[in-house]
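Q: Predict the bound structure with TXE.
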Amino acid sequence: MSEINLLESVTTFLQRSHGHYINGASVAGQENEIFSIVNPASGEVIATVNQGGDTEVHQAMQAASAAFHGVWAQTSPLERGNCLNRLADLLQKNSEELAQLESVCSGKPIQLSRMLDVGASADYLRYFAGWSTKITGETLNVSLPSFKGEKYSAFTRREPIGVVVGIIPWNFSIMIAIWKLGAALACGCTIVLKPSEYTPLTMLRVAELAKEAGIPDSVINIVNGSGARVGSSLINHPQCAKVTFTGSVPTGMSVGKLAMEQGLKRTTLELGGKNAAAFLSDMTVEKIVDGILEAGYVYQGQICAAAERFYIPSVHMDAVLALLSERLSAMKIGSPLDESTEMGPLANKEHYEKILSMFETARQEGNEIVHGGYALEGAGFFVAPTVIRANRVEDTLMNEETFGPIGTFLSYDDEEELMTMMNATPFGLSASLWTNDMSKAMRMTSRIEAGMLWINMHTFVDPAVPFGGMKSSGMGREFGSAFIEHYTELKSVMMRY
Ligand code: TXE
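A: Predicted complex:
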């Protein structure tokens, strides 16, 4: 094992006393209530963070509201875009430091942290920067009759919604926060972010870079703490106009409910699910296995869009499971700081325990564990990548999100039956269909209930392509031009002349 050396800036940053970031400065928070940040590769505490409370929530919301009505409202759309571009430059300039911080806090292999949490985040910022000058309304024809020769005209305006509260999960602590921040700032909103209590550090560093990029103080604020306490308190705050949340389905539902109860606050919910990947019989066994590895096992399966249910033609099933097991056995599992690592630990202890209990459930229900299904020895929260052959559509592992490196497999013979099985879930975030028969793929496209459908690919999201879930997997869409309607209010203006 050869680990990269941590930069001095990373070790110094970890040793600092951490709290929150409000009005362009670090704020200590409740020093008597501290939570620990654990490196999931070693199980060791690497930093501590002071819990936030009502005081920090109120300070951050007041600051964001003042900036929304003041400095940010007076900033031209062009300059808003320039701010986002300058932040993108600084993410790239400090790329290694941010990637290392992300990897030690989340267990993400360093190459992925570099590529996604930093590289892709800069790309997303530049995409949103381009939109800042292109958010417009329409001129409309009025249909009223004219009695005395009077005329009418009407137009619409897209107005920023106000202070946005962004609640962020632990799997992409920078990239998902940047999705919310870029969208909000491009539309003229200001934001208060609450990172996950497992990964609260990276955005504190990004907030410092935002100041260096010339983004005015208070446009971006960060309050750290638990979801139940800080998350709810932010949503309850009178200055909160909108909540944008990424995370689990049950938490998303309670966040949405609270936002509705608190005066119909606007919400975007990007939740999990139980995404399906279906391979048609024209695919070779090798291509199927390549597809499964791409769809289900990147970053230990801890990606909301990753596939967890795999449907394989019966004729290929045994060969696919055998080759997949062989490929997973050869996968390099180890330190996230080793550049050749393909799979690191699970991101935190609670999640690790949940995955171990999922293995147990599969055994109790009589599923065949074809590969893996156990914790790896040694320190840290490592498990073996796992392949499970289910018996029935109703099996728990075919229905409940594991969010781990577990693929559960069912065979099929009939493509009509396949469509029914793919849609037999309350969720609908993503799905993929793998075939060389494009005519068949196009016919199946309209029948698959998922907000994001990939053909011959899986898990790639792109700033230009709207992303979000159908059914219980969410509300609203991020990216493309679709995000604009979720961060602005539509105002109609009618005139008589
Ligand atoms: O997620 P939560 P957790 C899944 C994954 C994981 C499980 C639990 O299966 O094992 O969820 O992880 C904040 N009001 N996903 O507990 O609860 C919380 O502090 C306001 C899937 O980390 O969804 C964090 O910032 N906020 C997922 C954020 O919500 C609340 C990614 C997400 O937490 C809150 C991560 C409340 N009452 C985990 N309770 C995906 N699909 O992307 C919690 N939070």
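A: The CA atoms of residues 246 and 270 lie 5 Å apart.
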